[in-house]
Amino acid sequence: MATSPETEKPVDATRLSDAEKDLKTESNERLAGFEDPDAGLSEEERAKIDRKLLWQLDMRLVPWLSLLYLVSFLDRTNIGNAKLVGLQDDLKLSGAQYNACLTIFFVSYSVFEPLTNILLKRLRPSVFIPLIMIAWGICMTCMGVVKNYSGLMAVRWFLGLSEAGLFPGVSYFLSCWYKRSEFGVRMAIFFSAAALAGSFGGLLAAAIAKMDTIGGLAGWSWIFILEGLLTIVIGIASFWLIHDFPDQAKFLSADDRARVLRRLAADQQSSAEHEEFKMDYFWASVKDWKTYTGAIIYMGADGTLYAFSLFVPTIISELGYSSIKAQLLSVPPYAAAAVLTVTVGFIADRTKQRGICNMAVSLLGMVGFSMLLGCEAPGARYAGCFLGAMGIYPAIANTISWTSNNTEGVYKRGVSLGFIIGWGNLNGIVSSNIYRDEDKPRYYPGHGTVLAYLVLFEFGGSLLQYILLKRENAKRRRGERDHWIEGLNQSQIELLGDKRPDFFYTM
């Protein structure tokens, strides 16, 4: 008798052997529908071609998309840097009005996110992403010339609307190019751009703020104008530098397109196939419990992310530093978070233990915000900022990878990511209102709320999903889900996606 790694109960070794044979047969049948340009080559020759192809994909896809997210995150959070150099005073905003301007972004951003992946699929990434970039670049530039509270509110609403498609869109898009075991580190590199944006944003804001009074504009106005114009330029360039899905990508030869589709099919991904949108895929996502556990985890990571990124310059300035020095001191925590994000992505890809990685980094975040709550010394609280960032940023990319690994079907995955990311970003409404002026200098309600999010949602949600996935895998190994495919042909079984009994979840 053999023992399943998911359960202590003995499992019939003969049955496992038969299941493995069935999987191999199904895999061969699945690949039979895809052209093999390397037929007749040895395994060593195939591996060499595959490594070269993967490097080509990495160079064409990841760097530019990471730059887009760096710009996106810079544009949504630079209002925190602008506040330090006079935005709130010049526009005569109360603390509540300033927080409302942060909040309105997340309302439009979250509401429209679940729809964007369907639009991405319909319009093609090479069209959809550049268009929304140009739109939010215009919004960002307009933020530099607003004169009052109502003007800032209006522009922040449209900024959220136009940025809504980028993060879920790119997350979904990248998941359609890579195997499950390859996706996590690419997603981590992409998302590390958010941490770099925080780091780079502090340096950039400190430099641009010195343009105060040039052209009759305040330094905070120039932060928005220059960064908005940069976004527009990058958006225009993106018409040529963003590529479409694997079956349409023009930068690949016909043989390389066939290789990409074949390697996806071998990984049991329907990204390799042409799938037409049906409402069934939408409802499949709505009825899937993983959509809701993923949303719980993501709200724990994303709610804390926005609280940290919007207010860290203010938090550091309350430690007794000048506004310019606070901008500069916000750089190192983000840099540390970027390094750990990529490291965790690499480890999670190799170990396939995404839940444990999430729980481990959340412990760092808990310690960091406990230090911000309980320590008196400025140095200790600044160290808490480091641990806080390192506990938040890696979990975002890892949670998206975890969801993508465990949600099969092109449209179902897109809808699930839209729901999960949209719900997570909706918690930006909470994040925007927990650091209040009247709570200076210790910000106990803000730090306490972030700590609760880390404990209950990022750590607790990850633990819950890990346990449930482990139980489900054990049931599938024991054959308790085999009745789901009784009477179905191979095509019908394929359409079940992650509901197939032979689909085992990444934990």
What are the salient characteristics of this protein?
single chain; 507 residues; mainly alpha; Growth Hormone, Chain: A; two-stranded antiparallel ribbon; 1% strand; globular; disordered N terminus
Q: Short description, anyone?
A:
The chain is mainly α. The protein has helices spanning 13-32, 43-84, 87-90, 95-123, 125-143, 149-163, 166-175, 180-208, 219-241, 254-266, 279-286, 289-317, 323-329, 331-351, 354-374, 378-405, 410-426, 428-431, 444-477, 490-494, and strands at 2-3, 10-11.
Present the secondary structure layout.
Layout (H helix, E strand, L loop, with lengths): L1 E2 L6 E2 L1 H20 L10 H42 L2 H4 L4 H29 L1 H19 L5 H15 L2 H10 L4 H29 L10 H23 L12 H13 L12 H8 L2 H29 L5 H7 L1 H21 L2 H21 L3 H28 L4 H17 L1 H4 L12 H34 L12 H5 L13
Antiparallel strand pairs: 1-2
